Amino acid sequence: MAPTESTSESYLHNLPLTPRESDNEDLTNLTPMAGRKRNASEMEDDGDKSTASKVAEGTSETIEAEISSDFTVECPARPRRTKSPIPEDVYYETAAPSLAPNLSVNFAVRPGDKWARFSRYRNAKFKDPLLLVYSAGQIVYVNRQDPLPPPLPADASEDEKLQYDKENLWAGLISEFRAESQEKVYVRVFWFYWPEELPMGRQPYHGKRELILSNHVGIIEAQCISSHADISQWDENDDSNKIILSERYWRQTLDVKKLAKDRDHALSKLRRFCICGGYDNPSMDMYQCRKVGCGLWNHEQCLIKAIEERAWAKFKKGTLTHEIQERDEGKGFAQKVGETVSNLAHRAFGKDGLGAEAMVIVKGNKKRKGVPTGKHVWAGKLQGAIHKTKTVDGSDAHYATVTQLVPTSGSAEFPSGFEPKTWQMKMSCLKCGEPLN
Ligand SMILES: [Zn+2]
Ligand SMILES: [Zn+2]
């Protein structure tokens, strides 16, 4: 890891072992060990959702420990008062997260002399309960509750695990260790934010498992580290579609320097996709056009809207028919009106089906069927959908349909016994019109 902090001071090679259980006579180790992410002055009133921090009288609920750290960090540091009559005990440094070198920030540590005097280390070794080494450049989870609530049962759902982590852990990118002794080891980190913790709140494009890397500096005691954190970086410009994101991921940064004056730009810009110029919301699939020179990623919901719009125009004229049937007549796609979706799927993606040469890559893997269509004129009358299936060789395939939810207009003669009709629709790139089916 290339350290971005000043390299003039040399690091000692390795920190010797940090305290063992048996060393705990030391009073300092009896204080609650929980990280401290933001102090009141730098926190905006963003409606801390941590209900666990409210302690009912007489109960021993866990608390969000707001212990007074041995060091306070001001980040970004206010400009120095050059002519202050009283010399301040402040340590100033400019640093940037190793994973986001453009986000350098000036921060202040108090008491400064003490912090500056400590030896610096790149690694810290912990012996109990397991031998573990943490290093600069690594991402770790930090306990924010002391004690931590009991771990979830092994069969807890992904959502429950995520909720537990959000309530009880923070994530930090390690910058360095400083130690007064083997018993007193501190870690300087750059904090990650859960989307809900952002001063501007969760944005609609934030994924469920997403975190945001900030240049907000924190100093915690090393014992607050809970574990290594598996948080991968999502490079939005990598179109290979081979990126496997881990349990959690980050793609965006928060620049705390901009929070005060230029808050709208404090979050880094994300890549724009689709004809609508929108973001990649990991819970929404996108389909990439394979036409050379186009390559547009199409949002699923934008494709559905286009399909519904087209179907609605035809529907009003009474000319809505299977679009795929029209295009591929004679290739085994002749279906009777009203045939069920499952039958269509079976035929369309059988041995000779379209799936054999799928034209597009589907990005994202979360299921999200159907998109609210309440705002469109065809709401309640037509509903588009994109269905995913597997081809015989196991690759992904998909097809689009529009379902007619009401009888054809003017057909008052069969109001009862109407069954929704489903039509096979073309799915085309919203920019160049290349088929995506
Ligand atoms: Zn779009
Ligand atoms: Zn295209």
TrEMBL record:
Record-linked SMART domains: BAH
Record's compositionally biased regions (Polar residues): 1-11
InterPro entries (UniProt xref): BAH_dom, BAH_sf, Znf_FYVE_PHD
SUPFAM superfamilies xref list: FYVE/PHD zinc finger
BAH domain: residues covered: 132-265
GO function terms (MF aspect): chromatin binding
Pfam family of the protein (one): BAH
PANTHER family: OS08G0421900 PROTEIN
Coiled coil residues, start to end: none
Protein name per UniProt: BAH domain-containing protein
Residues covered by region (Disordered): 1-80
